[in-house]
Amino acid sequence: MFTNLLRAKALLEDWAGVDKLLELSKERPLREFEDGLSFIRAKRDGSPESIDKWLKEFETRVEETGCADVARLVYAAHLGLVDEAYAAVERASPGPDGSEHDVMGPDGYRTSMLFQVGLPEIRHDPRFVKLCARLGLVEFWVSTDRWPDCTDDLPYDFKAACRDAHGTPLDEFRF
Question: Which residue among 20, 32, 89, 109 has its CA within the 20 to 30 Å range from the CA of 137?
Fold first, then answer.
C-alpha cells in the first residue's frame, strides 16, 4: 500500500507528501517500485529533459526485454508519450519479460493500471482496443457483454472497436 500511496501523492502533485514518504523509504527499499519512482521524478520535474530521460530508460528496457509492462505503458502515456507507448507495445509484448529483473511491484502486471481514473491518456487513444485485445480483455467484454466503466467516457465508439478487434491473437506471457 505504501507504493500506491506514493503514486497517489504524485498524481495529486503533493510533492511534500511524496518527500515525506520517500524519507520513510530509506528504511524500506522500494525495489518493486523503482519504475514508479522514475515516473514520479519525471512527472515532478516535467522538463523535456526529464521526460526524455524517462523515455530513454523505458525504451532501453523494452529493447532489452522485448516486453513493455502495463504500468510503464500507462506512465508513458501520462507523461505525454502516447505515441511512444503504442510504438513500444507494437514491437514488444505487453507484460513481464520472465527474467530475474522482473518485479511484481504494486500492480503485479494486473491490467487495472489501464483503468486508473487519473491516468486516462492511454485509454483515450483508439489503439487502446488492440492492446486490450492482445491482453484478452476484449474477448471477455464481447463474450460476456460486461464492459469496463470507462466505455462511455472514451472519445470513440469503444464497443464497436472491441467487436472489430474480437479474435485478435493473445500475447503469451512469460511469468
Answer: 32
How many whole angstroms separate alpha carbon 151 and alpha carbon 173?
26
Residue at 88: amino acid letter: A
Higher pLDDT, 109 or 34: 34
pLDDT in tens, 41-63: 999 999 999 999 999 999 998 99
Half-sphere exposure of 54 (CA within 13 A, CB side): 30
Whose CA is closest to 149, among 139, 160, 158, 161? Answer: 158
Q: Which pLDDT tens digit goes with each residue over 117-131? A: 889 999 999 999 999
The secondary structure element, H or E, covering residue 20 is helix 15-24
* Block residue for cell numbers 530513454: 56
